[in-house]
Design goal:
This protein has one helix and nine strands; from the N terminus they run H-E-E-E-E-E-E-E-E-E. Helix content is 14%, strand content 27%. With 195 residues, the chain is an alpha+beta fold. The strands form two sheets. Strands 1, 4, 7, 8 and 9 form a five-stranded mixed β-sheet that branches. It binds fe (ii) ion (FE2). Residues 50, 52, 135, 138, 140 line the site of fe (ii) ion.
Length: 195
């Protein structure tokens, strides 16, 4: 074996072991998994709609408007049945507070709906909502397969100081988030109570 080949192999082995330890560190600190098809029968928990839902929101993936403040967030995921089947054409309606914790009750700012694609996927582009009295930051959603009951729920942000003091907070509704260019990326898969 030539010297350079041996060095190369040693470098590869070192890289593998550091990857393994990174993986182990990540596994120790990672969040509890969001409810998804791999843990079986648990549909996404229902939560109150609260007082600010408005019907007939515009159909759109991006709720961001010019001049809107706040940290950008790209929220993606799937709508699944309890048996892991993706639900195409499922309705997702999102409404939320702005970065200062205020809802737009006159218009449709930070409100929008869309339908999952043929693979059951969705994507919203929005901002991280602010806190308002009594509530940790959260997104409100209604999710519905065509002709089926509506799942009304809320999603939460990991690491928010206000989570523990909010009586509605449910760790099963934590998004998985990571920093991304210009903001954060978040993931959440909804599981509907259907097979
Ligand atoms: Fe709210």
């Amino acid at each position: 074996m030539t010297l350079s080949r041996r060095l190369l192999l040693r470098a590869a082995a070192a890289m593998l072991s550091s990857t393994a330890s990174l993986g182990a560190a990540f596994a120790q600190t990672s969040l509890p998994p969001t409810p998804s098809c791999d843990d079986g029968d648990d549909p996404t928990p229902q939560q109150t709609a609260g007082p600010f839902f408005k019907p007939r929101s515009p159909q759109r993936q991006s709720l961001i408007e010019p001049g809107m403040g706040g940290t950008r967030i790209a929220l993606t995921g799937m709508v699944l049945t309890r048996t892991c089947r993706p639900v195409p054409n499922a309705l997702l309606d999102l409404w939320q507070a702005d970065a200062r914790g205020n809802y737009d009750n006159r218009g449709f700012r930070l409100r929008g709906h869309q339908f999952t694609d043929a693979q059951g996927r969705y994507r919203f582009e929005t901002i991280v909502p602010g806190r308002y009295p009594g509530r940790t930051p959260h997104l409100h959603l209604r999710v519905q397969a065509k002709g089926r009951p509506i799942l009304t729920t809320q999603l939460y942000f990991p690491g928010e100081a206000g989570n523990t003091g909010d009586g509605l907070f449910d760790p099963a509704l934590l998004m998985r988030t990571q920093p991304a260019a210009g903001g954060i990326e978040a993931k959440y898969d909804f599981v509907l109570a259907m097979r």
